[in-house]
Write the structure tokens for this entry.
Amino acid sequence: QVQVVESGGGLAQPGGSLTLSCAVSGATLEYYTIGWFRQAPGKAREGVSLINFSDMNPGYADSVKGRFTISRDKAKNTVYLIMNSLKPEDTAVYYCAYGEAYHLPSIQPIGDWGFTTWGQGTQVTVSA
């Protein structure tokens, strides 16, 4: 059974940085997709970034392009979301999700279809 566990959330100042981690366990396929999503209070869940392991092409929401980077440590079965130049509007609970369907990185918005396993989330707060 696949499990994903997020970590690394916390408090950051505007303009600051945080790195989130998504540890994946129980995956039997070599190629799958990991997505990062976030949900702010009173708002719908939003796709932030994803990476397909079949080609390692990343996708980003327009709101985070140029500021966030998704990467993978294959040996550690961990996917990272490196968040720079944080803004107060980045405040949300961030979730990582596992899926076996390929997502075209260029498609906006990043949809949550095909993601079958979700983590519990980690809080990111950006405030002075």
